[in-house]
Amino acid sequence: MNKVELIARISSKYDLDEKRVRVLADVIFDEMAKALLDRESIEIPELGDFWIKTRPEKLSENRRGQVITIREKHAVRFKPVIQLRKALNPKSNFIAKR
Length: 98
Description:
Layout: H1 3-13, H2 18-37, E1 42-44, E2 48-55, E3 58-61, E4 67-70, E5 73-80, H3 82-88
Antiparallel strand pairs: 1-2, 2-5, 3-4
Helix pairs in contact: 1-2
């Protein structure tokens, strides 16, 4: 589902004006992006947690065997709440070794 589909679904389900739902969605997503850019975590109890993970600078080798420096990187991470994880995986994928 993309943003347009999400807005249409909410608008239809709750009989709301699509333009107002779009404005509200824009505000919510903008605030979430600002929080992440400020390195704040976002906790949504029904969904999960978003946070920024920093990968430190490191040395590596390129294809020619030359040592290169890979710069520090930042990535958004997401961990769903346990109820969502259980709903996605109703039976454990764990197989006991005999």
